[in-house]
Amino acid sequence: MVRQSTRKAAQAKPAQAKPAAVESRTRVKEEVVSVAAVKANGTEKTLTAVAESKVDAAKKTVSKRKSAPAEPELDGKDIENASPAEDKKQVQEPKKPAAKKRKTTKKEAEDTMPLAARTAVASLKRAMYIGAHVSGAGGVQNSIQNAAHIGANAFALFLKSQRKWASPPLADEAKSQFHALLKQHNYDATKHILPHGSYLVNLAQADAAKAAQAYDGFLDDLQRCEALGITLYNFHPGSTGGATTSSACARIAAQLNKAHAATSSVVTLLENMCGSGNVIGSRFEELRDIIALVDDKSRVGVCIDTCHAFAAGYDLRTPEAFASTMAEFDAVVGLKYLRAFHLNDSKAPFGSHRDLHANIGTGFLGLRAFHNIMNHEPLQGLPMVLETPIDEKGPDGKTVENKQVWADEIKLLESLIGMDVESDGFKEKEEELHAKGASERQKVQEQVDKKAEKDAKKGTKGKGKGKRKKKDEESCDSCGESD
Ligand SMILES: [Zn+2]
Ligand SMILES: [Zn+2]
């Protein structure tokens, strides 16, 4: 069945392709919508564009904000619910005095000047809901405006600080504001919001005390989901800690069963991983084995991260490779369990077991892989979340986030729906992005080759011993999955 629809999708005549990607991207950049308009319209409509002068004004505001010397996101409150990118910065940068003023400035900038209008999904040839992992700094409710700001039709967030065990309970005010903003911005919390679990939680933990702590943190997240009306929740399956994979899978399933019994509706999605160290979930078989032991199958599913899949050895680059990977997933796990996607290109080559997210089209996956995904019918309606890098060097040499990158990538992905891959528009865009990522790909390729050489000399396969394994089993290399 999958094969059939895959073939259909691959053969679908993209005759009435959307305008060339290049044109569409340029156009998007020129489309800035006032929040007043968004609010009035209840969103999910491509709204009236405003004059280009406003774009410049918006850019100025944003860059002014970004280069502001005092970064109050370092205060405790802002560390809560930071986006992956923000989190990385917080970990790396020393603590500085907080400037209260900036919060207002940031809020104003983001409120008044969305970087892109949300596309009406109904206007797309396939119902693809694309967004990014946005920040919930200052309270989960802020994630909604942050998502609307970049024109996202789906989004991810952390429900609490992803690196602390103890977090204050969900405030009533945050909860009521979350519900109000959901309504105002017309996001469906049962379908298109995909919170990401804490990096600290390892449900495969064998140690009783640590397993209890992991369970408490996990359950707390699920309870937050239910309080917010969110149905899907994505998490990393865990690490064996050196135990057998089968025992680890059994422990994960047991924890899930307990958590499902203690809650009522949230569906827990296992994320596929890149296959480094002792991390579980890089093979579809491992995901299958966990699901097999889950009592309530309606409460479990899978979120596929494209970068992780590719690094783990599942190819997505050509229509044939993509179809075969999807068919394999269907045969091993079952397509009905596929509930979400993380859309990331890969800075590391195929099967390298390294987790290095790249911007769409600039990595080893390339634009064609994303064209395959965007035109695959069975994936319609799933939340698709970018976790691509947005850090850039500011004029003062400081790292700043450029959320325009996500706004543009969302529009780029949407433009791939129904696009003819033989068209000049597609080819030009593909080439442009491929060239953009060349030096980064080369750099990582060299690292991978060097390591392979070393491993060959040692007679190991790089999945055995030493420091690297320890590091990998605790974290991924990028996208805020790093330490
Ligand atoms: Zn993840
Ligand atoms: Zn990752």
Automatic annotation (TrEMBL):
Region (Disordered): 1-112, 425-483
Cofactor names: Zn(2+)
Keywords per UniProt: DNA damage, DNA repair, Hydrolase, Isomerase, Metal-binding, Zinc
Single GO term (MF): zinc ion binding
Positions with biased composition (Low complexity): 8-21
SUPFAM superfamilies named in the record: Xylose isomerase-like
GO biological-process terms attached to the record: base-excision repair
Composition bias type Acidic residues, residue spans: 474-483
Gene Ontology annotations for the cellular component aspect, listed alphabetically: mitochondrion; nucleus
Alphabetical list of InterPro entries matching this protein: AP_endonuc_2, AP_endonuc_F2_Zn_BS, Xyl_isomerase-like_sf, Xyl_isomerase-like_TIM-brl
Residue ranges annotated for the Xylose isomerase-like TIM barrel domain, each copy included: 145-415
Bias-annotated ranges (Basic residues): 459-470
Skewed-composition ranges (Basic and acidic residues): 74-96, 425-458
Family: Belongs to the AP endonuclease 2 family.
Listed HAMAP family: Nfo
Annotated PANTHER family: APURINIC-APYRIMIDINIC ENDONUCLEASE (PTHR21445:SF0), ENDONUCLEASE IV ENDODEOXYRIBONUCLEASE IV (PTHR21445)
NCBIfam families: nfo, PRK01060.1-4
Protein's recorded name: Apurinic-apyrimidinic endonuclease 1
